[in-house]
Amino acid sequence: MEQIRILVIDNQVISPVESGAPIRIFNLFGKLPKKYDVHYIGVSGWKHLGKGIKNLSQNFKEEIIPLGNSFICADNLFSNIIKSIRSFDVLCSYLMFLNPKFMKRLNEEVKKADIVIASHPWFFSYLKNCKNKIKIYDSHNCEYLLYKKFLEGSVSKKVFSSLIKKIEKDACLYSDIILACSSKDQENFVRLYNAKRDKIFLVPNPIDTASVLPIDEKEMAKKDLDVKGKTIVFIGTYYLPNIEAFQFIMKELVPNMKDHTFLMVGSVENSFLESVDEYLKDVPIEKIKIENKGILGYGYFNLEKWSNPPFNVRWTKKEFSLVIKDKAITKIEFGLRSLKKINCELFVNNEKIKSIKLKTGNEFEKFNFSFEKRDNINCVFKLDKLNKSIIRDTRDIGIAIRGINYVSNGKIKKISLEKTIAPLLIPKNVRLYGKVSNEKLKQIYKAADIAINPMFSGSGLNIKMLDYMAAGLPVISTEVGARGLKIENDKELIICKSDQFKEKIEFLFDNVELYEQLRKNARKIVEKKYDSKIITKKLDKLLNNFVNMIIFTINFF
Questions:
Q1: Model pTM score
Q2: Which of 27, 120, 126, 144 is disulfide-compatible with 165, CB 3.0–4.6 A?
């Protein structure tokens, strides 16, 4: 029998499969039986990710296409207009014509496919008019309701809110099948868009329970991570509902639970870096001497996209300085990068050492300069004032610096911006891990005593909840955080209001019997209802029915 060809498209990079949407996409479509041949097309702002096709499983291929400067420039422009959220998702629905390579590859793969799937609604517009294909909208949330809360106020935000509603409505009305994460999403699609109830199928986020085993060896894991005492884990990408939860933890729990250590995983840490002044107004940040600093946020800075901005990189504006306190310094080396071709000058203790010409590109350019022995040097980088076109630029253009080394008394020494800045900014009972590998995540789960999910908005089903429960961690969540899960309060987890979190955490640590009950019951329910083998079997049956129905129709007529 010839394989059934499936095309899945989204604006995500799937591999490595570590968080959120990529987990749903891969666990749903990457684990279908071998009779399916699945080709995934995604996009990325990183040019080096758009190289060839990866086989992520026997019958699941991933192809990533770079977005291109035109699209990124447009996204930067609109993001500056609406400010509170990324414009990226919405623009994917309308502006991919700016990327001819994407459109060419999409059209080629659509022709080959029997089934075309838009995971999220953002690319459904390119599948809407496909003929003789089964069109599926794989929803992760009710996007309109998710974004609506963050798009109140200005006219531009209201326009984007209405665009999101139209995009999602088209995906619901023009698809043959809708896959919904939760029964609440099912109801919302019927209520908001008059979608036909009989074409909406409940397909929860699956989890590979075999890859997330219950955790033992807790004390050894804590020692390896250099944490002690009571530990609490929270996971989140840089995503508006996660940012709300992160800020709640940092403002309400961290200062009031100083004998507990909070293990914070994922790119949501960038929200802390962006608004650190709001958390810690008295931090002596001036000691770092990186003036006019601009923290790299979600991954966008002007014309380029970073999928995981390194913590030890700092963007600056038109001038910045770096103080190195040491004896007999004779050499300094570092990496610089710019958004445009820029001329800048390096001064050491007010003496001009060198003019530097920076090219544009994805890589940092390495520079090194030698000079006579000096103590306690102050390196100042200034943009060339003759570069008038840059000075007039309305964007906050600047230089990025990283990889700083210097030679003192003949020995090479390294300046770690991460180690220098982190102790000043991060509370002592918080660990910010950023994006981690699956192996590192397992180690963090081992070291964690409790998982929390204080979500206040969102739709769909939180994959992190399944992760926590599969790892055998007792979970405390708000009602919103536990949405979509068929679970019982105080049996598989604890559901409470935000002002009860501190009380419930302390209660759980003191109640060993309840602690063990929640661990075991949470694991059981995930194995029984949310394991990827069970859910992909249901999806296989659903797809089979539709394929057979089309074959019957073709033969009959």
A1: 0.68
A2: 144
